[in-house]
Specification:
With 287 residues, the protein is mainly α. Helices cover 77% and strands 3% of the residues. The protein is built from eleven helices and two strands. A two-stranded antiparallel sheet has the order 1-2.
């Protein structure tokens, strides 16, 4: 427990530091590093042995979050991604090294080096929403957006655990996560919604003393959606671990496991927030 608390405190300090520097490249570099680490953990758990494939995948995973934020042309990014996929197929079929690449290894490498980093990249995209919709989203709004995204995902898990321990009777996904219950999931969503409404009140009345750009009803919908998808992100990470028969993705964070163990719930919460804000911006912009 002592080790868990110490490592958790260190992670918290790093995240707070990145949060304070969210309008600088620091936050993008942080999540690029996390994406690369997460890619390493997944392909390691999956038993991908080909070293060339591993190195290329990890490097690409680390570049994706930076590319989505800083490459100005979508066409350039599309070409890079297509070239990367072609390279993976050539490596698999041509077998330049002594270590054969199987199709399952290719599939899990694509997932680890493209889908996971793209999810991390949406965190940087959320922090830059004030540039995309300057008419109604401010930098202060983006700070709250990022807080909502990460805190909702993390606190949903915390609240669901305590509610589940007290009231949990019906298993939510016994084959993936036996300890999670339906009662815990519902309690997690309700408790995090109340908590986030308090955060909104503090934001508007104490911290920035101005109204958030979202109406309260859409704010509540957003928090609920993020809370629910964060649980699915957690279960998806558990599915991979159960399939490969491991308890944790790595020992990178003492007492917590790996990057995927700690940030699994954020990996669906962040894209969900990005989509919801984009839809909101399109609707408001069209009115």
């Amino acid at each position: 427990m002592k080790t868990r608390v110490i490592s958790g405190t260190v992670i918290g300090i790093l995240l707070v530091g990145a949060y304070c520097l969210m309008f600088t490249p620091v936050i993008d570099l942080l999540f690029s590093a996390l994406a690369a680490a997460a890619c390493y953990e997944i392909i390691n758990v999956a038993g991908v042995k080909n070293m060339v494939l591993r190195v290329i995948a990890i490097v690409f995973a680390g570049l994706i979050p930076m590319g989505l934020v800083y490459i100005p042309s979508v066409q350039i990014l599309e070409v890079i991604v297509v070239c990367y996929v072609i390279l993976l197929v050539v490596l698999t079929v041509a077998n330049f090294s002594k270590t054969t690449i199987t199709f399952p290894e290719l599939a899990v490498t694509v997932y680890a080096s493209m889908i996971i980093p793209a999810a991390f990249a949406t965190i940087g995209l959320i922090s830059d929403m004030y540039l995309k919709y300057p008419a109604f989203i401010s930098k202060a709004d983006c700070r709250l957006l990022l807080w909502i995204t990460v805190a909702t995902a993390l606190f949903t898990d915390v609240f669901a655990y305590f509610v589940g321990v007290k009231f949990g009777k019906h298993k939510m996904a016994p084959n993936l996560s036996p300890k999670k219950s339906v009662e815990g999931a519902v309690g997690g969503v309700v408790c995090v919604l109340v908590f986030m409404l308090i955060c909104l009140l503090l934001f508007e009345k104490v911290i920035v003393k101005e109204s958030f750009f979202m109406p309260v009803w859409f704010y509540c919908i957003t928090v609920v959606f993020i809370s629910i998808t964060s649980m699915f992100g957690d279960l998806m990470a558990s599915l991979i671990k159960r399939y490969y028969g491991v308890k944790d993705y790595s020992n990178l964070i003492p007492g917590h496991g790996g990057i995927m163990d700690r940030f699994d719930s954020v990996l669906l919460a962040s894209p969900t927030m990005f989509v919801l804000i984009t839809i909101y911006g399109m609707v408001v912009g069209a009115v």
